[in-house]
Amino acid sequence: MERRKNNQLQLNAIQDALLAENVSPHLADQATQVVFGDGDPTAEMVFVGEAPGKKEDEQGIPFVGAAGKLLGQLLESIGLTRKDVYITNIVKYRPPNNRDPLPNEVQAFLPYLRRQIAVIQPTLIVTLGRHSMDCLLPGFKISHVHGQPQRIPVKHFGLAGSPGADGVQGSNDNRANRTNGTKSEARNQLTQQPAAKLGSASGSARRQDELTWVILPLYHPAAALYNGGLRNTLFEDFSKIPNILSTAHTA
Ligand code: URA
């Protein structure tokens, strides 16, 4: 409970910083409000979508429209509800007329997404759609990698050794507490790059740049709304999540 409260306070501080730092003022001016994130601040899984739509802009909560309804069904299919996970977007304001976020907008919000993830320290980050995947797994093709978890060194995201720089004290220790299991050398599935050895040392002694994130790229639920084939693929990919989570725990 203490950790939940502490994480929520840290997330609130990141949201306050985003507002104070006046990120993407042209988007902010046209939006009703910021849509920062929703769910369990200690969740095992963080879902990262693209940007808020109309309903999300009205309510200030991500994935509350049609795509959110499908996301709820997908979560239900693996015995979860949205309260069990944390849901956010790469871009925190609704782009006008739901246009795709521009590269400079994605870049402007990326530090805040990184900080959200650093606080929550999820076992699994699930990207929803191409834009979200491009942001965390640049150079990958969603049609090739959907449903296949990728293990990426945290330093890849500029997080390594940066609790201070990130303003997130002790976040990497949270991760260490969750992963003090067996030793293994994880490899990125596609690039076969060696990744971190997790759990090979105590949180304080372990080099922070050895940490890895596990990222699961999935299609966006909105893309599956009117495409039965994609919808089936999305349910199939979701069904792999429990296994991916247990593997990520022991890696
Ligand atoms: N699509 C997204 O990517 N995010 C939302 O919050 C809603 C729809």
Chart the SSEs and their pairings.
Layout: H1 2-20, H2 25-30, E1 38-39, E2 45-49, H3 54-59, H4 66-77, E3 86-89, H5 103-120, E4 124-128, H6 130-136, H7 142-145, E5 150-153, H8 163-166, H9 171-178, E6 212-218, H10 221-224, H11 228-239, H12 241-250
Parallel strand pairs: 2-3, 2-4, 4-6
Antiparallel strand pairs: 1-3, 5-6
Helix pairs in contact: 1-5
Bound molecules: uracil.
How would you characterize this protein structure?
The chain is of the alpha/beta class. It has a single domain, classed as Uracil-DNA Glycosylase, subunit E, CATH 3.40.470. Helix content is 44%, strand content 11%. It contains twelve helices and six strands. Strands 1-3-2-4-6-5 form a six-stranded mixed beta sheet, with helices on both faces. Helix 1 runs antiparallel to helix 5. It starts with a helix and ends with a helix. The chain binds uracil. The site of uracil has 13 residues, from helix 4.
